[in-house]
């Protein structure tokens, strides 16, 4: 990719919009927002229970931490030794860099697809859903996860399967839903075999994605004594056998009947993915698979769980951003988005 002058706009908007949140709330509030501190525990202990018990006093069982996958803590550890940095600052820096990189990669993907208003849509990625502004201003792996998904899908589309596999590995080592990339690629591969009656061995690198997950579980076995430590980390896997269990307020991670926003997420997500399928089958299928899994998640924070869908939904709705009134309305939305972000992070 050639450097585009629009990259500078993306960098400046990311930095300024993050800085105004930090300025308003102070570093203590920013640093303590979850799940940032838990990833710092992993960066210091690498899941060793004796280390966690000795040096950390969170009111959590020692088995809890394998719920937080290691690539984000590894990135924090690798850069925290740099001048002026410590683990807390490194935690934010990794997130900011991942946010900038995600927006730039999304911008370049849109340009390659000849989608108009690519810069505007890349900037929208920084603010929509509303949760995005909050998530990228604290310690969180979500933007890193989105970055790897974008890169993996981009290279799979270009049939550069080794890069697609490598970035898929990075995705699954950042957050467990990264394994969905393998499912999408396997489906497309099998579909291609049925159409062409030919087996293409060049796609073998996608097998690196489940292999990486297996090796992570082996690592958990050595560090915790439990190969299945991720599944034994407590009430952290919120998938149910039936969809829409989020509307059962008795579910432990729901606890509310004020859930109208979930319906809007389902509606906008479904429509965006429907239109994305018409424009780009690979991206649309990934969105469809991911949203289908989201329907089985019973957690009040569906907004955060669905953040990786944002690029797919924006791609699907790309035609409406040609309209001047839509762009103006979205720009004006920045004001309530900002106050939403401050309120959310305060609590």
Report on the structure:
There is one protein chain. This protein is mainly alpha-helical and 347 residues long. It is built from 18 helices and no strands. The chain has helices at residues 6-25, 27-32, 36-45, 49-55, 71-79, 87-112, 118-124, 131-136, 142-157, 161-174, 179-196, 208-224, 260-279, 281-294, 302-305, 310-316, 324-332, 334-346. α1 packs antiparallel against α6 and α6 runs antiparallel to α7 (118-124). The longest helix has 26 residues, at 87-112. The radius of gyration is 20 Å and the shape is globular. The N and C termini lie far apart (41 Å). The model has no long low-confidence stretch (mean pLDDT 95).
Query: Helix share of residues?
Result: 55-70%
Distance between the termini: 41 Å
Task: Find the structural class using helix and strand composition.
Answer: mainly alpha
Beta-strand residue percentage? under 5%
Question: Gyration radius, to the nearest Å?
Answer: 20 Å
Which shape, going by the Cα principal axes? globular
Number of strands: 0
Give me the oligomer status: single chain
* Count of alpha and pi helical runs: 18
Largest sheet: none
- What are the low-pLDDT stretches, counting only 5+ consecutive residues below 50? none
Please write the string of helix (H) and strand (E) elements.
HHHHHHHHHHHHHHHHHH
Keywords:
347 residues, mainly alpha, 18 helices
How are the SSEs placed, and which strands pair?
Blueprint: H1 6-25, H2 27-32, H3 36-45, H4 49-55, H5 71-79, H6 87-112, H7 118-124, H8 131-136, H9 142-157, H10 161-174, H11 179-196, H12 208-224, H13 260-279, H14 281-294, H15 302-305, H16 310-316, H17 324-332, H18 334-346
Helix pairs in contact: 1-6, 3-5, 5-6, 6-7, 6-9, 9-10, 10-12, 11-14, 13-14, 13-16
């Amino acid at each position: 990719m050639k450097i585009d002058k629009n990259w500078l706009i993306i960098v400046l908007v990311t930095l300024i919009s993050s800085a105004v949140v930090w300025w308003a709330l102070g570093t203590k509030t920013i640093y303590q927002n979850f799940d940032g501190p838990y990833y710092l525990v992993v960066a210091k202990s690498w899941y060793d229970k004796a280390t966690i018990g000795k040096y950390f006093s969170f009111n959590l069982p020692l088995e809890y931490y394998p719920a937080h996958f290691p690539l984000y803590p590894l990135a924090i550890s690798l850069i925290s030794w740099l001048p002026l940095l410590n683990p807390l600052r490194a935690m934010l820096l990794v997130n900011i860099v991942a946010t900038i990189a995600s927006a730039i990669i999304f911008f370049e993907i849109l340009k390659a697809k000849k989608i108009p208003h690519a810069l505007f849509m890349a900037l929208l990625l920084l603010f929509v859903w509303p949760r995005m502004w909050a998530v990228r201003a604290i310690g969180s792996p979500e933007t890193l996860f989105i970055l790897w998904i974008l890169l993996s899908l981009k290279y799979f589309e270009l049939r550069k399967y080794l890069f697609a596999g490598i970035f898929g590995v990075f995705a699954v080592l950042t957050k467990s839903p990264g394994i969905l990339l393998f499912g999408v690629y396997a489906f497309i591969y099998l579909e291609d075999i049925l159409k062409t009656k030919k087996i293409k061995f060049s796609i073998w690198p996608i097998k690196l994605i489940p292999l990486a997950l297996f090796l992570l579980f082996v690592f958990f076995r050595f560090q915790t004594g439990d190969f299945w430590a991720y599944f034994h980390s407590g009430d952290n896997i919120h998938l149910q056998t039936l969809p829409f269990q989020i509307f059962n307020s008795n579910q432990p991670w729901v606890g509310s009947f004020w859930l109208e926003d979930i319906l809007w997420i389902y509606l906008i997500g479904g429509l965006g993915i429907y239109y994305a399928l018409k424009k780009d089958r690979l991206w649309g299928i990934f969105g469809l698979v991911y949203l289908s899994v989201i329907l089985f998640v019973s957690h009040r924070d569906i907004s955060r769980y669905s953040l990786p869908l944002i690029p797919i939904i924006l791609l699907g709705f790309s035609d409406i951003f040609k309209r001047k009134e839509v762009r103006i309305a979205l720009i004006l939305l920045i004001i309530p988005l900002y106050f939403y972000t401050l309120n959310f992070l305060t609590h």
